[in-house]
Structure formats: C-alpha cells, structure tokens
Amino acid sequence: MHPSRPLGSPNVPNDPSTTAELLTAAKALQRHTPVLRELGQLFAEAGHELYLVGGSVRDALLQRPLTDLDFTTDARPDRVQEVVRRWADGLWDTGIEFGTVGVGKGSERLEITTFRADAYDRVTRNPEVRFGDSLADDLVRRDFTVNAMAVRITADGLGEFHDPLGGLAAIRERMLDTPSTPEVSFGDDPLRMLRAARFVSQLGFDVAPRVRDAMTRMAGELGRITVERVAAELDKTMLGDDPVAGVDLIVQTGLGEVVLPEVGGMRMAIDEHHQHKDVYQHSLTVLQQAIDLEGAGGPDLVLRWAALLHDIGKPATRKHESDGGVSFHHHEVVGAKMTRKRMRALKYSKQMVDDVSQLVYLHLRFHGYGDGKWTDSAVRRYVTDAGPLLERLHKLVRADCTTRNKRRAARLRASYDDLEHRIAELAAKEDLQRVRPDLDGNEIMRILDIPAGPQVGKAWQYLKELRLDRGPLEHDEAVEELQKWWNAQQ
C-alpha cells in the first residue's frame, strides 16, 4: 500500500487510479499507524511475517469506519502470544483453537490469526483446522475476493499491497465473487451464503451470477448451520444500509425457505388494496419506510424486524370475499404468534421475541381510530398496550401506509397525527406511561381485610381496567368502586 514500493503480486496494476485508491486507503488507516508500526516491528524482530487482511483492508479501500483490525501471520498461535505478550494490554484466547489470538492495546482491538489452509468435512461447518505456510494459501480460503486482500505490515507501518484474486477490481465493480468456485466455498461453509446477503445489505454490492446460481442450488446446505449463527447473520443483514436488498437476495435464492420461510411465503398473498405486486413487496416497502423514520437514533433492530414481519399472518388468513375482494381478518393475531414461533426457533432473547411480536400484534390497532372517534379510554389502552414500544409503534404504523392514493395517504397521516395529539393531551393530564390502579395491593388488602393471594390480584386488575376506562379516580371514589366490586363477588 506504499505507492513507492512494488504493489505486491503481478496482477495488481501500478497505474495512477490504483495508486490513488491505495493512498486513500492508507489515509483511512493513518490513525492506526502507531499500533501498526509497533506490531510490525515486533513480528519483524521475531522473524515472522504480518499482514493486515480481510475486512480491514476492504473497509479502508471503501473508506468505511474501521473498528477492529484483523491480521494474519505465519507465526503459530503460541508464538503469536509470545511475540505480543509484553507489548499488549490484554490477550484473549477464545479463538485460539482456530488459530486466532485476540489482542488489546489501548483502545485498539486486534485479532491475529495464523495462515490457514483448512479442510471441511462437508457435514458441519466446523473445519479441520490446518495452518498454512503462505499468504496465498490463506487468501484463497476466504469467503469473497473483496475480503481476500492483504497489506504487509512492517516496522515502518504499511508495506506492499497483495491482491492475487482481484479483490480491488471486485470493489470497483461492487461485486461479490468467491476466490474458488462458489460450490467449493459454500460447500466448505454454507454460512457464507447468508454472509453474501449481509454484504449486499452492508456494502451495497451485488453478487456475481455464478454466486447467485450456487446459492440457489445449495440453499438447503444452510441446514448444517446452528440457528445462533444464522440469527447473527440475519441481524447483521437487517442492520445494514440496505436490508431490503439483503432480504430479497435471501428470499429469491431460496435461502429464506430454510431460515425465514414465512417471509417468502408472503409472495403468495395479494395485497387487498391491489397496490403492490404482493404482500411480500408491500412488506419490503414498509421495511424501507420504517428505516426512513428511524432518525438520528440509528438502526433499530426491533423496529426493522417488526416492519418485515408485520404481515406474515396474511397468507394463513386470506379469504376471497363475495364482492371479489380479498380479506385478511385477524392476521395481526396470527402474525404475532408466527413471529413468536419463528424468533424462538432462531433462539432470540425473550425480550426481543416479546417486543417484535407485540408490535406485529398492535400494528393494526390504529385503524380502529380511522373515524377519529376514539374515546379517552381507547387512547389509554393503546398507550398502555404499547408500553415502552409506543414510539416504535408510531413509526411502524406510519411506515405501513404504502397506498399510492395520495388523498388516502394524506387522510391516514392526518388521522395518526390526531391520535398522537390526543395521546399528548392525555399525557399532559395523566401519567399514561404508567397506568396503575388508584389503590395498591397493600391498600386493597387493608380495605377488604383479606390476605395476600389471588383475590388481591383480581381486585388490582379490576381497578386497573377501571383506571383505563375512566382515568384517575379520587381516593374515596376508588375505595367505593373496590367495595362495590368485592360485594358483587360474594
């Protein structure tokens, strides 16, 4: 990457455009220079090669933010630890069985991995770890050519740029291709097919035709991958700059049949307004519109998942009406159950499952307000049911308006503006975020002279429903209502 030196392998042209790209990448890496020089000197003095590799080089060329730095070396893991032990602020060996040593130096987080030349059993994705003897062996086993570039690290910092597999050309073309044939690459590690979708989302790249063909033919191989790893890749795809493109690649290649069959299944359900090709395309539009509403808070994984999955209950509830229309009654209820089942199968956290499924369940609630006649009680229940998800629900409902009818879209926006105004008005008078009974459990036990138990819970729930219906009550009024309820139970 030093323009005054040979640029690595012969297939890297020493032309002005390449030199300019490498200078730009070197500038992106400039703030890491002290660590690079110190590390380069340590390995040189120990008689070992060291290269910056993979995503670190790719992102420097793309001028993307760099977080962790990845290196590869001919030194074996125990030797790497020896070389850096006195220099590093911290060492981690969680990946050492795969040849990776984690290193902390100040605010820098580094991973140093021994050259690899793995073999795979083609049953699991776990390799038989074999250490390689050359950089070329290491680069050819990587997932995509854009991640198969390296820069020699020396005591002076950045050295020669190595690109034996055409990664720089692939970056210029914004194209994902595999170093070896896709069949070999994906057969070794099927998770790479999902990683392709992630890079499409994160980097705005396309996939080479042969890669897309292999993904389509080999989609079933994803069954070898643990659901935890699948979920991690799906989340990275959803958090990218263009998750719509990533999700669409997953669905169109058949990967979705293995990991998210409900999403591709929406292609069978025609939108009842006939404004979209199908419910699937509508859902992708809602996902994009939800992203557009995220604001300065950055990517919101819960909102994005809810936007993608909000209509997955439609195929199961589709009904052809006598007037020629199509209805999807209670699809939000069915969809919430389907969302919960799928996310549990992918082993998401309980909080994540609860939040996404609750948003799916609530996404149609607003449409009962379409005539602008919601009562205060209904507004309270809307806010209470949403709880901490209220702001996300606002965004999801607004994103779900995809009609091309401008008058109808304006009417829906105005109705939701009015609902938010009503919420704000009530919130100014009442604590809508914490709607609780006017009497607590201790007061209920004292007034009714009963011990702790199920009856106290029933009384508490009755008073909460009363609070939702009528708003805050004076203490004496709440006591009177409680006693009326209690007497009716006897």
Automatic annotation (TrEMBL):
EC number: 2.7.7.72
Gene3D superfamilies: Beta Polymerase, domain 2, cca-adding enzyme, domain 2
Record GO terms (molecular function): CCA tRNA nucleotidyltransferase activity; metal ion binding; nucleotide binding; tRNA binding
Record key words, sorted: Magnesium, Metal-binding, Nucleotide-binding, Nucleotidyltransferase, Transferase, tRNA processing
One GO term of the biological process aspect: tRNA processing
Top enzyme class: transferase
Cofactor needs: Mg(2+)
HD/PDEase domain segment(s): 275-412
PANTHER family noted in UniProt: CCA TRNA NUCLEOTIDYLTRANSFERASE 1, MITOCHONDRIAL
Protein name, entry field: CCA tRNA nucleotidyltransferase
Organism, scientific name: Mycobacterium yunnanensis
